[in-house]
Amino acid sequence: MIVRKTAAELEKMRRSGLLVFQILQKLREMAADGVSTMDLEVAAAEMIAGAGAKPAFKGYYVPAAGQAYKFVLCTSVNDEIVHGMPNPKRILKKGDIVSIDTGVKLDGYYGDSAITVPIGAIDEQTEKLLRVTKEALELAIDRVRNGNRLFDVSGTVEEHVTSNGFSVVREYVGHGIGTQLHEEPQVPNYVDRRNENPRLKPGMVLAVEPMVNAGRPEAVVRRDRWTAVTKDGSCSAHFEHCVAVTENGPWVLTRP
Predict the structure, then answer these.
(1) Is the pTM of this model over 0.90?
(2) Domains and CATH numbers, the chain
(3) Residue 5 in contact with residue 178, Cβ under 8 Å?
(4) Res 115: pLDDT
(5) Neighbours of 227 (CB within 10 A)
(6) What radius of gyration do the chain's Cα atoms show?
(7) Please, are residues 203 and 209 in contact by the beta-carbon 8 Å criterion?
(8) How far is CA 248 from the centre of its chain?
């Protein structure tokens, strides 16, 4: 069941979303040559606690992993698609890219967002990967409109990504969000006719999150049971925003 939020609920989600935005802006500034992914984790945890919020990811149980997640961030470097775990030994270096994904729960409502940050200068192909992934997200956000269907959002991502020579990950998708981190509907970045294609209505909130590979779309999970990587070793980019359907068009809750 897709839960539609009231105006008051959307305002609460807005506060959660802006906190996530502030955290990611701080981490974007921190992410540099010589910084560890655990350094980012510590800073994020301090900001979440200081705001009186709870981390969305830490303690979240995933049956496929057989355990709860232990961190407030997912930090996925280069060929890591999603769910990379912060590690003091994982030192960022020039030429890397790192996806930083985090969420919070504030006053009972969740916010969730992700950015991919280049560390110093990166090669031309990887620059294009980040640009196309961000463009795909913005194009998809514009389709989160009253009366459109879910496939309008999904198909927009797929078309933009594939027309630029990249591929969308199929194993991991976006999602509804509200009083739960993951709600209906699932929001894939491609059109899968086997899935339902609900019409978008005011009060729905979608976490739209293109995950785009420079090479082939296939993903595999490492032995840690969390970190998803590209099967062919190519780089992967990930951007995410929470977007509300309103009578006046899309409202991005996770940025000012």
Answers:
(1) yes
(2) 7-252 (3.90.230.10)
(3) yes
(4) 98
(5) 20
(6) 17
(7) no
(8) 24
